[in-house]
Amino acid sequence: MSNIVVLLLLLLLSAFFSGSEIALVSVSRIRAEALLREKRRGARALYLLKQNPNRMLIVLLIGNNVVNIAASAIGTVLATHYFGELGPGLAVGFLTLLILIFGEITPKALAVNHATSISLAVAPMILFFGRLFSPIIWLLEHFTSWLQSHFTLQAEPAVTESEVVSMVNHGASEGTIEHDEKEMIQRIFAFDTLRVGDVMIPRSEVVSMEGSRTIRDALGDILSHRHSRIPLHTGDTNDITMVVHLRDILAAIQAGRWDVSLMDIAHPPMFVPVNQRVDELFENIRKKKERTIIVVGPFGNMRGLCTLEDLVEELVGEIYDDKERPKEFFHPTPDGELLVEGKVAMRRVLEYFGDIHLDCKPTDSVNEWILRSVERIPAANEQFVIDDLWVVVERASLNRIHNVRMALRSEVTGKTQHIEFR
After folding, report:
1. Which candidate, 90, 115, 338, 393, has a CA 20 to 30 Å from the CA of 71?
2. What domains are defined for the chain?
3. pLDDT (0 to 100) of residue 123
4. Residue 55's pLDDT is what?
5. What is the SS3 string spanning 178-240?
């Protein structure tokens, strides 16, 4: 009877070590650090175990193998006692089934579904076993390290960028991460893939002034443009050579220098190639403290202008000062089409087209609705039919859609080539 009790106890220990192994391996080191910051019971032991995963695995495997071997030995003795020569064969089959069901499958299935709570519960005991058998574990740890040194396998990172993005998306769908937080995190990861040409103000939209103009002559235009930094050209508007700051203009006015030329109080801007990475430019701006950047092409021709604000907006979204108001472009055309910005709320689109079917929330932006429908960021000039609308992407960057042209699906069916969604 005592052997049967010992056998049952060994099966329970087998389940304990098997479940602990899956639970502890499933909890990442980052999750363990978060639990420690939350001061959860058992978190410190869990954190210590995750600092040395090889040692943790050795402890678990020693425990699991010792109890399984002991269970097999006692089971064989019991079977031989009751069944004679048939005992060893019966013991192998019966114990294999018991260990498989109660010592492996069941505890591991439970551990997968409750990894965090089980890890916090078992971590102190596993840490205790590790200290109890530390001499044996030390020998095995050094032996396995010696074996690993003969293999040149590169260690994988603990967390990859794609895993973080997946966690953010999952957190947003679960409601633990706000939509704005999700968008900002996605912008941060997309930041190092952007080029200056993706975020610059195009040359056609750059406001510049003739550098030879005096403050007295240019003051009206300066005040109407309401920019703190003004690019200066010499004759050709594409030939930007200097930038004048509003504070230097005010200082000159205060000193009574009304007839000084803008060029005389200006300073040279930073010139960068159109294909430079945005994150590199951001670092250069931070070091050189220059906020107005002239973007040039391969032959030195001006392609556009970029400011620190443009870069920051790629991370946090549109920024408006106390004199600016968000201007959402929403322009119906005479032929029934609608030109809109990506940030326009779908509520306005629904109101404009009337009784149509669109799988969206009124609070969604046009950008969100299209990205969710096509599951990627489309390129400029791509056409789609989504629900009851025909959509053409007029302008898009690497991380969002800027301008869209829309019309009723019934008005364009058969007239254009497009990809159909729903």
Report:
1. 115
2. 2-148 (no CATH), 161-191 (no CATH), 196-316 (3.10.580.10), 330-421 (3.30.465.10)
3. 92
4. 86
5. CHHHHHHHHHHHHHCCCEHHHHCEEHHHCCCEECCCEHHHHHHHHHHHCCCEEEEEECEEEEE
